[in-house]
Amino acid sequence: MLGQNLWTFKIDESWGEHDPTKPKPENAHALAFLDDRLLLVTDHTDHNVIEYNNQGKVVNTWGKQWPGAHGIKVVGKGNTSAIFIVDSGWVVNPNWDGQSYDKWDSPYNKMLRQAGSIAKLDAQGKVLFSIGHPQTIGVYSSDMPYNPTDIAVSEKGDLYIVDGYGSDFILQHDKHGRFIRKFANGSANSEENIKNGHGITFDYRGNEPLLLVSSRADHCLKWYTLDGEFVRTLHVPGAFIHAPIFNEHHMIATVCWTGDPSKPEDNSGVICIFDENDTLVSVLGGDLPSDGQPVKSDQKHFFHCHGIEQDQQGNLYLAQWKANGLHPLRLQRC
Q1: Which of 28, 198, 280, 285 could form a disulfide with 216 if both were Cys (CB 3.0 to 4.6 A apart)?
Q2: CATH 2.120.10.30 fits 2-29+97-114+133-333, yes or no
Q3: Exposed, middle or buried: residue 69 (CB in 10 Å: 0-12, 13-18, 19+)?
Q4: Number of neighbouring beta carbons within 10 Å of residue 224
Q5: Alpha carbon 6 to chain centroid distance?
Q6: What is the residue-level pLDDT of the chain in tens, covering all 334 positions?
């Protein structure tokens, strides 16, 4: 059993694809439900989206035009649904030396960086429009990289894109893709800036909705108004944390690595659960630390926790980066 207090889960060994002939992810990045199917985005060169049924079996794969596929959001239900895919711009290097994974400036690294993009699709996967590099509309200069990591869509349709592998701004567009503003970087007050923003969502627990984004490299979650004004920060020592999903007033956030900010540990992912006061109350895959102490992984259950979703029964679905082609895991609430 994983977790503490009233937030405990177990891995459902019966759920998931076990047929070795079926397509697998390259890196499993993000998850979203489209009606009764679970969609996973992956940077696999043959398929960017894998669809799973209720038993976790692969029922469809599609998409090759997003080689850096990293984020996905689904808005609406049925035939009126819209799917947003975030391509972070990383592409598999045909000249990879077979060894280099983290030498980002090397021409022989496994992944090379190019400009990223956002695509809005209909429920059948047809592209409706795309948003490219902000330099094309004068928002970025030509030397500023654009490598978005995630997107959030407001109730009125505004798009909030976090450029977490690029220039670390949040860019707001309207529902037609027209630019409104950028924020969350460039402030003289470093507390207002994000660093390796890696997930973005909305927090509806207060009187007014707030934008909630992870500042992964400095182990923080940060809140902003929908107009881009900084509100507050939650520091989570030891946790390279992703933006959470919500279960009523509780937040559930994946952690890709634990460790010192300058020394993330491989295969050290956990899932953190916070109560209505943003107090850490459960750690899946590790012990619950005492106040102020860093989150640590037991390094027994997870690789690198990345994308997360939940169903109506409160079961969790976990996508893991750099997990040897592992399909999503289903975690049953105990």
Answers
A1: 198
A2: yes
A3: buried
A4: 21
A5: 25
A6: 999 999 999 999 999 998 999 999 999 999 999 999 999 999 999 999 999 999 999 999 999 999 999 999 999 999 999 999 999 999 989 999 999 988 888 999 999 999 999 999 999 999 999 999 999 999 999 999 999 999 999 999 999 999 999 999 999 999 999 999 999 999 999 999 999 999 999 999 999 999 999 999 999 999 999 999 999 999 999 999 999 999 999 999 999 999 999 899 999 999 999 999 999 999 999 999 998 899 999 999 999 999 999 999 999 999 999 999 999 999 999 9
